[in-house]
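INFO batch 0412 | record 1 of 1 | parsing
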Amino acid sequence: MKSFPGGPGSGKGTQCDRIVEKYGFTHISTGDLLRADVASGSDRGKALEQVMKEGQLVSSKVVMGLLAEKMLAELSNTKGYLIDGYPRELAQGEQFEQLISPCKLVLYFEASDDTLVKRLLHRALSSGREDDNEETIKKRLNTFHANNDPIVQAYKDKTKTVSIKNLPHR
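INFO prediction complete | emitting tokens
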């Protein structure tokens, strides 16, 4: 597994798409999995929608289940997985490594909050995502900061940091 944490709007998905195109890995976005579950209209999707609107983290159990389902579905067609936006909490990463696979690389996308807010508000113009509004963005950033430092520290030997100042914006 290769993990791609970074703040909301840091370009994780864009960079993963480029790596997939070049190397043939399977890109799994935890955010996309969660949004698809919300769009399904299921009871779980309705509960997730409320959590996401509040800018909070979805439970590790739910995220792990969605990831496992997706990974199993892609198992016969992949050279490996790029998981963007994961782990969001240190416990998620530890649980993933115990139950599924060790993490080989963490590519951390670093950016200032001002940069992330600008990128997300720009994305909101075309994305239609309900969580791309200023109030929810600030909550998401606070949640991200509270959880990210322990992850980067725990995986420091496997982490490469990329400043998004050097990456093109989509």
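INFO post-check: The chain has seven helices and five strands.
INFO record closed
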